[in-house]
Design a protein that fits this description.
The chain is mainly beta and about 375 residues long. The protein has two domains: about 220 residues, Beta Barrel (Lipocalin), CATH 2.40.128; about 130 residues, 2-Layer Sandwich (60s Ribosomal Protein L30, Chain: A), CATH 3.30.1330.
Amino acid sequence: MMKKKVLTLVAAAACVSSFAFATPQTQFEQGQWQIDLGAWNPKAEADSSNWYGGSGDVSSDSKWNFQGGLSYAFTDKLALQYNYYGLKTDYKGERATDGDEHEVNLVYGLNKNFAVFAGWNRINNDLGGWSDTNNVAQIGLIAKAPLAKNFDIYAKGALGTKSTSMWEAGLGYSITPDLDINAGYRYLNTKLADKGDMPGLKDDANISYKGFIAGLSYRFGGGHKAAPVEEAPAPVYEAPAPAPVEAPHVYNDYYLDSIHFGFDEDQPLASEQGKLDNFVSVAKANPTEQFKLTGNTDSKGSDAYNTDLSKRRVDNVAQYAVNNGVPASQMILDYKSFHDPVSSNDTDQGRADNRRVDIWEHK
């Protein structure tokens, strides 16, 4: 009888501490929402030696559970996330666990590869006539990196109160920039009960949940409504008034080079230093020629914001040239926002190609 009780108790729902159910995000877009839908297939396992008369590990049967979540990005770095996890398992064809979990986290993106999160986790462990609720404070880390085109590998882990720990790892695939799917494996371990809380329990007991997890994420909304003052300082460079044209002249533009930028950044990538210096050298060697600088962005964000971003990119390249001896009168500035892409905005590489300032010899 005692072994039968232990086997039933072992199937109790565990306290879960995690960030996101679907492919976890490490970067956000202000005002954007994300919906996560899917399922996972856990089974519960515990060491029955914590009960009188028990020995060895015992476990419940696995069962598919609904999982869902909703997230909202306050800024490009900070998001609030709610997750729901069903905690139902079976044992020999009968219901062993009938609990659920509600989780709320604040997630902060450090960069495109890492994010941290902290929050609160409320788990109802319900089996038959015995029910208990765990309230867990948790903190964790998310890591994500590209593995191949449209494929990401991810991992996340967390520590929490109630002797809770968690890890998950898997793969994500981007169907579109706003829709992705994932599949992985999840393991969590938490306190089931303290000594004396459950019949026959002779010591504090933990329980683990483990199983495959899969889901889908969809993002919508977002985009900058206005550029923050601290992110868009007034440029030092001021374009000179155009010189009066004394006679008609047909100009042609001859492509020289493209200077590239990081996401939502107006300073060139460090790898573009050689291109900047080459532009300065060519301009100084041809003092009678003019050069057209055209700013471009990817399609993330509103048209108004990207017009301002493309302008800041052009102004900063022009300012670098002026600081290195190129007269302002040699440069013509133009801003295209995201309306002149050279690659598809549906891929990370395509968007990186579009974040640029094109330099043309104007003669």
